[in-house]
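Comment thread on ticket #2218

A.B. wrote:
> Attaching the input chain for the structure job we discussed in standup.
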Amino acid sequence: MHPTGGSPIGSKGERQGLARPEEELGREPRADPLKGASGGPSERKMLLLTRVVWLLALCAVALVTASDREFPRLIVPNELFLRVGGTHINRSPFSPSPHGTGCPRIVSRQQWGARPPKSRVPLRTPVPYVILHHTERNRCYSETICSQQVRAIQDNHMDKRGLADISYNFLIGEDGRVYEGRGWRTKGAHTKVFNSRSLGLAFLGTFSKTKPSVATLNLTKRLIQCAISKGILSPNYTLIRG
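C.D. wrote:
> Ran it. Output below, let me know if you need it in another format.
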């Protein structure tokens, strides 16, 4: 027992009965600066939330811009893209290829002589984005030369960049063939922020001043339609120029 007959100072009963400092001094309790009179979000809280949203948007733009320095930008026909915020995107799918909508021939990893990947992360599908890149190398016009280029790109990505595999999901040659990179169901490593939500396609060659051939673009259309038919790509996808 306490000397005065009350409960011990540390007891639960007295702790519950202690007055707040504001009450002891006869003042109103301090208001929470992030709450209004009714306890809902105040103007200050909404302003803070707005600033956070803008900051996140600016960070996303900065990361996408940074990816351009790692993977060089390419030129594609203007009619395929709309310029939005400095990024070329097409908010509607490619129109169907005049040469058919079936899946194009894909040269498998085994056929072009791929090394086994160090590791792989499954890609959750369907994804909402297709990102187009180019490899900034010479164009190739035969399966033999294109396969050599794809092997060289894989060696560069794995040995010099420290990646687990070639970074792209598929590569597209001027020889009329598609080359399997990480494939349909493995997460790529071709952008800073969209890898888990996209397919990365790369044109074999340098297209910073010239465009891929019409045949190559038609082949790309067929590959994208193939991805939709397999349930890998959302029908309402967004196309982004990497």
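A.B. wrote:
> Thanks. Noting for the ticket: Residues 1-39, 61-73, 77-99 have pLDDT under 50 and may be disordered.
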